[in-house]
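Design a sequence for this backbone.
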């Protein structure tokens, strides 16, 4: 049985730390990838491109975590 995922919790976790919402949803690889990408984006802040890429990846992570939790719950009938 698939444990119910709360979309709001997934989104908040991802907002606090990029990739944490994906890990909560069981997407370990995707969560680790987002964390690594954000660490690289943090380094890119020193050359200004990070000011564009960091928030874009952050927003993507929050929205993706929320939507995946909703979709997983629908798929498993929770």
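Sequence:
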């Amino acid at each position: 049985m698939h444990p119910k995922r709360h979309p709001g919790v997934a989104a908040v976790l991802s907002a606090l730390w990029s990739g944490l919402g994906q890990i909560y949803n069981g997407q370990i690889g995707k969560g680790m990838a987002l964390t690594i990408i954000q660490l690289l984006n943090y380094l890119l802040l020193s050359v200004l491109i990070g000011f564009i890429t960091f928030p874009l990846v952050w927003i993507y992570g929050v929205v993706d975590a929320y939507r995946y939790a909703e979709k997983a719950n629908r798929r498993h009938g929770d």
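The two ends are 10 Å apart (CA to CA).
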